[in-house]
Amino acid sequence: MLPKQSPWLLDTERIYTEVFQSICGEYGKEYTWALKARVMGRPAREAAAIICQSVGLPLEPEELLVESSRRLHERFPSAQLMPGVERLVTHLSAHGVPLAVATGSSRETLQRKTEQHGRLFNHMQVVVTSDELAAGHGKPAPDIFLKAASRFIPPAQPAKCLVFEDAPNGVGGAKAAGMQVVMVPDSQLDHDLQNGATQVLTSLTEFIPETFGLPSY
Question: Which domains are delineated in the chain?
Fold first, then answer.
């Protein structure tokens, strides 16, 4: 099983949205949900370039990356677990189900996001971050999911992996890797962008493990 870090685990997308809306608004630009859907799950530098180009920000992508990182890092420690996460992760871990995080965040950013939730993230045997990917190989490419699967002992077959995702790019990457995907999208995400997932839920509290051959609660 290869769970993604944010926001199905943590409520960080709200923070991302507020920060980028704030920066774009300072230049009279709008950070829309359509644009957000394009960059969700992508490595930070790639996302910054798309945002700058799409809205015409008078900033270089690196400048946007520096400013957004500063604001995000101030707020990440306040991120709370999403409903149903703690129950699911501890349940699967107790039953010996291998767990991983495969995230478009850098390792430094991941540590900042999870510093208040170390006990939960200790259940993850494998962690793969964007630092480990070649340029242009972030989601929706399958690389990060395949890399995570290969690090289990023994390595996991993609067809035996279940990915939890919130973003269309993540769903696309997981499907390209040959894995099943449970999508837990934000309620504001266009329904047309929720296609492709094996299952779509409004909350992890709705997840029934035995549907995918996992131990029941």
Answer: 2-10+79-210 (3.40.50.1000), 13-78 (1.10.150.240)
Cα dist from 95 to 73, 98, 123, 209, 216, whole Å: 34, 9, 11, 12, 10
pLDDT at 8: 62
Q: How far is CA 93 from CA 100, 120, 159, in A?
A: 11, 10, 20
pLDDT band of residue 204 (cuts 50, 70, 90) is very high
Average pLDDT, the chain: 91
Burial 149-173 (b: 16+ CB within 10 A, else e): bebbeeebebeebbbbbbbbbbbbb
The string of pLDDT tens digits covering residues 155-179 is: 999 999 999 998 888 999 999 999 9
Whether 44 and 65 have beta carbons less than 8 Å apart is answered as: yes
What are the Cα distances from residue 157, in Å, to 28, 118, 151, 169, 188?
Answer: 48, 28, 11, 21, 33
pLDDT tens, residue by residue, 2-54: 544 344 688 888 899 999 999 999 999 999 988 998 998 788 889 999 999 99
Residue 115 DSSP symbol: T
